[in-house]
Design goal:
Blueprint: H1 3-10, H2 13-23, H3 35-48, E1 63-68, H4 75-83, E2 88-95, H5 100-107, E3 114-119, H6 121-128, E4 133-136, H7 152-169, E5 174-177, H8 182-195, E6 204-206, H9 209-223, E7 234-236, E8 243-245, H10 258-269, H11 271-279, H12 287-304, E9 310-317, E10 325-333, E11 336-340, H13 350-380
Parallel strand pairs: 1-2, 1-4, 2-3, 4-5, 5-6
Antiparallel strand pairs: 7-8, 9-10, 10-11
The chain binds nicotinamide-adenine-dinucleotide and (2S)-2-hydroxybutanedioic acid.
Residues 68-69, 71-75, 94-97, 137-142, 151, 155, 158, 161-162, 178-180, 182, 207, 210, 238, 283-286, 289 line the site of nicotinamide-adenine-dinucleotide.
Organism: Helianthus annuus
Enzyme class: oxidoreductase
Keywords: NAD, Oxidoreductase, Tricarboxylic acid cycle
């Protein structure tokens, strides 16, 4: 299996395609390497719909995506990137804050999807009806000095309420949880879905793509590699030492000194804090997160569309280790997680093996905290 090729395909084939097909531009800001995957999916859809001489407007995109928290720092740029996907027919934007302006603004972009806005509890169910992919960036971000776990008290309830609505209105959707602390909010979502009798572990994803995006960027910079070729799996969870880049598994194969491994690992683990401190109280990563989340949305849509070669890292229910949720590389298919890739955990270096053992207790604690929250709320409500 060539993960390197897959990673390249995962990098925004859709946007490239929109740029070249809809706007006749000669090249996209996303690079020429991503055209092949889009062309494959575009041709398949054209064949399925019996369209000859297809163009992007004739070959109907068929997927509905909802973003919950769409007026926020991540929500807005994410909505823009998803609006550019040729696979999306309907884009639903929900927020408790006014999202009407965001939708009006976005709806003027001449890409095929229809944009609708939904505000407040009353409109949440309409927003979610028949949706294929739900992305949840709703919640508060960190300020300097805070850990992601410091967000638990506010964001746990937000995620719980939103996932209850997802369970009631689109239980078959892929659910992408961005809201922090991901190590706890994903288990909360799982418990809520269980309580509603609709939990499908193959369709619940904690979004850790930003860790991979960062690892790829930092490694390419450090080793002077062509960025589009670099692919570093990042496993574990999404907070501090639970973020574990497997540098020994970097594609293309590259050697690191012990010092480089230490520096890169710590930088990738602290990259979120690096942004929080640079923003100095104005929030956390939004633009890079929107990019990363849009990549995961696009990968999910390609999988739903029948592409059989879609791989991403994600925090999912997993039996790779004794920890019940674990980020690793997964294969995505029409039904969600088709396989959890175990080979990355074989042949780890001593450094990686120690780091893996060290992260497990913290990750386990965060998961248990989420599970306890979801179940305590049920007992007392
Ligand atoms: N998984 C990751 O890698 C990653 C990366 C960056 C940020 N995050 C997390 O994403 C979350 C959002 O970050 P942001 O910068 O976009 O924050 P933000 O404050 O800019 O935006 C959050 C949005 O959520 C909305 N919201 C709050 N409660 C809501 C509810 N009940 N229903 C619908 N919308 C609601 C707010 O009105 C706001 O528009 C934070 O928890 C942050 O820590 C995760
Ligand atoms: O660091 C944060 O609080 C936001 C996010 O989890 C990130 O990694 O950037």
């Amino acid at each position: 299996m060539n993960f390197n090729t897959r990673s390249r395909l995962n990098d925004f084939n859709g946007l490239k395609a929109v740029a070249s097909v809809n706007h006749n531009s000669r090249s996209s800001f996303l690079g020429k390497e991503n055209t092949a995957a889009f062309q494959k999916s575009f041709t398949r859809r054209a064949q399925n719909q019996n369209v000859t001489s297809p163009n992007a407007f004739q070959v109907q995109a068929s997927f509905k995506v909802a973003i919950l928290g769409a007026a926020g720092g991540i929500g807005q740029p994410l909505a823009l990137l998803v609006k550019m996907s040729p696979l999306v027919s309907d884009l639903h934007l929900y927020d408790i804050a006014n999202v009407k302006g965001v939708a009006a603004d976005l709806s003027h972009c001449n890409t095929p999807s229809r944009v609708r806005d939904f505000t407040g509890n009353d409109e949440l169910s309409n927003c979610l009806k028949d949706v294929d992919v739900v992305v949840i960036p709703a919640g508060v971000p960190r300020k300097p000095g805070m850990t992601r776990d410091d967000l638990f008290n506010i964001n746990a309830s937000i995620v719980k309420t939103l996932v209850e609505a997802v369970a009631d209105n689109c239980p078959d959707a892929f659910i992408h949880v961005i809201s922090n602390p991901v190590n706890s909010t994903v288990p909360i979502a799982a418990e809520v879905l269980k309580q509603k009798g609709v939990y499908n572990p193959k369709k619940l994803f904690g979004i850790t793509t930003l860790d991979v995006v960062r690892a790829n960027t930092f490694v390419a910079q450090k080793k002077n590699l062509k960025l589009i070729d670099v692919d570093v799996p990042v496993i574990g969870g999404h907070a501090g030492i639970t973020i574990l880049p497997l540098l020994s598994k970097t594609k293309p194969s590259v050697t690191f000194t012990d010092e480089e491994v230490q520096d890169l690992t710590v930088r990738i683990q602290n990259a979120g804090t690096e942004v929080v401190e640079a923003k100095a109280g104005a929030g956390s990563a939004t633009l890079s997160m929107a990019y990363a989340a849009a990549r995961f949305v696009e990968s999910s849509l390609r999988a739903l569309d029948g592409d059989t070669d879609v791989y991403e890292c994600s925090f999912v229910q997993s039996d790779l280790t004794e920890v019940p949720f674990f980020a690793s590389r997964i294969k995505l298919g029409k039904q969600g997680v088709e396989a959890v890739i175990s080979s990355d955990l074989q042949g780890l270096t001593e450094y990686e093996q120690k780091a893996l053992e060290a992260l497990k207790p913290e990750l386990k604690g965060s998961i248990e905290k989420g599970v306890a929250f979801a179940n305590k709320q049920t007992v007392s409500s």
